[in-house]
Amino acid sequence: MGSCIMRIIMFAVCAMWFLPDLVLAKHAGSTRHYKFDIKLQKVTRLCQSKNIVTVNGQFPGPRIIAREGDRVIIKVVNHVQNNITIHWHGIRQLRSGWADGPAYITQCPIQTGQSYLYNFTITGQRGTLFWHAHISWLRATVYGSLVILPKRGVPYPFPQPFKEVPIIFGEWWKADIETMINQAMQTGGAPNVSDAYTMNGLPGPLYNCSAKDTFRLKVKPGKTYLLRLINAALNDELFFSIANHTVTVVEVDAVYVKPFKINTLVITPGQTTNILLKTKSHSPNATFLMAARSYATGPAAFDNSTTAGILEYEHKSSVSNTKNRKPSVLKPALPMFNDTIFAMKFSKKLRSLASNKFPAKVPQTVNRRFFFTVGLGLIQCSRNQACPGPNNTMVAAAINNVSFVQPSTALLQAHFFGKSKGVYTTDFPANPPFKFNYTGTPPSNILVNSGTKVVVLPFNTRVELVLQDTSIIGAESHPLHLHGFNFYVVGQGFGNFDPKKDPANFNLVDPIERNTVGVPSGGWVAIRFHADNPGVWFMHCHLEVHTSWGLKMAWVVMDGKRPNQKLPPPPSDLPKC
After folding, report:
1. What is the pLDDT of residue 327?
2. Sign of CA dihedral 530, 536, 542, 547
3. What residue stretch is flagged as signal peptide (predicted)?
4. Domains in the chain: ranges and CATH
């Protein structure tokens, strides 16, 4: 009997030793495994076929579903000629920066025939995020939704929906995208605008020969649907509306908000928005277009087309009179493409719940203040280049007049192993090199500098950052995304930021918390964040064309003193450059 008990004890001890994940699973969530095979797939849109880079041959890619507290392990295997990395957009990556994904920032890319295990735990987050390729312009086809459900037994802070539906917006080019951007970068010209927007990979009935390629949402009357909206487009902020329906915004960027009702919303690339759609009590004899089109503020050409899906009500078979009449198709009225006032009004409605269960932990005091100008400029081309700009220049994008040069080795490795020399410098400017009327008449010299520069922050620094748009070449809205953190949007406005007057109006009570914010066209936005996550964290415009032109930089957050405040060593399969 005693030996039997001893065997049971030994087995239990061995189980804890060899199967730590199973033991933890009871308390800390489950471990979820996914396999991403990067492969070419022939896809036809707008009556033209082409091979595109996909995950598992799917477009859009597979949905990842997890719960708050779960560990997620994704094996990515590269079967194509392109280098690849995947970014889990909006995941905090607490002490798991090696899994963040931006190429040459936290990792070298996964080369042809190689694989990499992305391994991270979802801590203190629940809601809608997404994943996408984070190298060159491959995210045009390599993207998918990432849904984080609350912990088991924890309800939403809004009515439980009848059904949940992800709607992911994208952009489609008839041409080969990598060829297009490579040519544009060599010549200094702007890349072609997209040929269509898509909704769950489908352009919809407003494009030529695309009626069959339309997303359809069939609904029952008198029910509440949670629509998880994701803007995975490369270069366009979007207005979105459903004809003859009002929706309630309940979450953005996987953060609950104080609910408010609207007819039309704005969503920038990199942002997510959860809305509740309460369907009409009776099935109407009509179908309703769900439409999205560009909100464009800059001087450049843009895709002025509209993607649409169809919202249709289920009809009971006993209702015969509706069969005889063809249902009318109703279209929503969307704002003008450059309606900046509408966009600002919408963003100012967003407020954190700031409840006991979901507090807004806004840094009330700050250690470091930064003022970053974001916008366009010109960069001098080399003598053997023939560039389209004046005096052999081409358009560049910059933060504080620094256009970021992508290194040839990953910044995080260089930082972790103390080998930053020749890779990056730590002299990224905290302010612009000179003051000017940022949103007024631009200065005569609009040449920018280039370099691989970072800001170094001690662990636990409380940061305030003002992002100021400039009118150089043209005022434009810039959706800025910060990796590794959420931040609080404490203030925003048009014109030039006034450091004496504007901070008095900052909202430090219930500001919206998110990971991507639109810097208003001809305006500014102020954010605060707590640098509690050691590693190297990319910050960039989520308009891919501006990122390609250099509108990006990185924050290096140093280790803290305690073991749980330090970045662990890299995994053994981290790709090499």
Report:
1. 83
2. positive
3. 1-25
4. 28-155 (2.60.40.420), 158-316+326-352 (2.60.40.420), 368-565 (2.60.40.420)
